[in-house]
Design a protein that fits this description.
Blueprint (H helix, E strand, L loop, with lengths): L1 H20 L4 H15 L3 E8 L2 E9 L14 E2 L3 H15 L43 H5 L31 H14 L4 H10 L22 E2 L5 E2 L14 E2 L1 H12 L6 H7 L4 E2 L23 E2 L4 E5 L2 E10 L2 E8 L4 E7 L8 H9 L6 H5 L7
Antiparallel strand pairs: 1-2, 1-12, 3-6, 4-5, 7-8, 8-9, 9-10, 10-11, 11-12
């Protein structure tokens, strides 16, 4: 066993060293992106490469709208579920300061029982949980690791009602509703404005001047519309409500700064930074969606795949790594980091068809990471 460990460590070090030596030039990156865009038909894509905790290449390609205006590194793009990773960073800051306990019941913070709150447009119908005391078992950690037991969103339920599908904390099943509930707890229980806290604790410290949890009028001057899987253009959604699950607008310049600050451990203590990408809960399904699919038999599960806080963690040929995706009908985003190298690739695409090229682009820049692409995208046919 000791010999195996030594050999494995040597292989990992060799892989990392090789990857570091193979740094791509800007021309090489541009050429590779052009090939991927041609192969997928994607009309717009922006990419950032962070090496050793520093953004070393940030570029945008293609169009930002049907008129053909160029996509730029300062163009406002939809962050989608990358919002969840940024929100988790803010939450662990609160935990760092003792303002919230990641393992305390949400009942600790709410002035009254969750089901007693009236339904608001901004939130799920918590009153649907009346009579089911399992809501008291929910904690910030459970909500951030997608193990609440809820569907992705209550409105996706056949009857539109919120319910538990399994015991809280017992397994992973992607749930934006869980993140929204944590936002509710911070707002109703701690009296915080999550939009303001994100601005003060994440966006401003990381220099993300063109990022917001809500629409800003100044975004209109350089805004990305999106293309769906059939090549139809949809206008950028002007989100008027802060939603921890995915309301963030950002730019590739800004998200590169966030990724760099994240891998450098900025804004939080070393202990809190470790919490973000710790393997808190095994992921036991064949793919991320549908979120409530049956668990795989233990022998068929990917043993290294687990939920972090707001991200997914895995262990590939370069060691501990993490990633987060973001998606809607016209948006495809990904963020992959190798911890030891403090190196990341972040891609924002305003054309969902670009997702088929993400594995190729990440491998081109980072080398083989072992990122769980099939789990993330199911049976998608990737560009080779």
């Amino acid at each position: 066993m000791r010999v195996f460990a030594i050999v494995w460590a040597a292989l990992v070090l060799t892989t990392v060293a090789h990857a570091a030596e193979a740094r791509r030039s800007g021309d090489e990156i541009d050429a590779e992106v052009a090939k991927v865009m041609a192969a997928t038909g994607a009309q717009g894509l922006a990419i950032a490469y962070i090496e050793n905790g520093t953004p070393v290449y940030v570029q945008a390609y293609g169009k930002r709208n049907a008129k053909g205006d160029p996509l730029q590194t300062q163009t406002i793009m939809y962050g989608a579920s990358l919002t969840k990773a940024a929100f988790a960073h803010m939450v662990v800051q609160l935990a760092d300061e003792g303002k919230i306990d990641l393992d305390a019941s949400i009942a600790t913070y709410l002035p009254k029982p969750l089901p007693d709150y009236p339904t608001e447009d901004k939130y799920a119908p918590w009153s649907d949980l009346k009579g089911d005391e399992r809501w008291r078992r929910l904690t910030p950690r459970i909500l951030l690791t997608h193990s609440s037991g809820f569907a992705n969103f209550a409105f996706l339920e056949p009857d539109g009602k919120l319910r538990f599908h399994f015991e809280p904390g017992s397994r992973y099943a992607y749930s934006g509703e869980g993140l929204i509930l944590l936002q509710f707890v911070l707002e109703k229980g701690l009296g915080l404005d999550v939009g303001d806290e994100m601005q003060r604790r994440v966006f401003e410290p990381f220099g993300m001047t063109d990022t917001s949890m809500m629409w800003r009028a100044d975004f209109a001057k350089n805004l990305a519309d999106g293309w769906d899987a059939n090549g139809r253009v949809e206008p950028h959604d002007e989100r008027s409500t802060v939603r921890a699950a995915g309301s963030m607008d950002t730019t590739i310049d800004d998200i590169a700064r966030l990724a760099a600050g994240y891998v450098n451990g900025e804004g939080v203590s070393p202990r809190a930074r470790a919490e973000l990408t710790m393997a808190h809960l095994p992921i036991t399904t064949a793919s991320q969606f549908p979120s409530l699919q049956p668990e795989l038999p233990p022998a068929k599960r990917r043993a290294d795949l687990a939920a972090g806080l707001g991200v997914v963690v895995f262990r590939g040929p370069q060691g501990a790594s993490f990633f987060k995706g973001g998606h809607n009908d016209t948006t495809g985003n990904t963020w992959v980091c190798v911890e030891k190298r403090r190196s990341c690739v972040v891609i924002l695409a305003n054309d969902v068809r670009a997702e088929a090229g993400f594995p190729r682009l990440v491998k081109f820049l980072l080398g083989e990471t072992g990122a769980p692409w099939t789990w993330e995208y199911g049976d998608m046919k990737f560009v080779r």
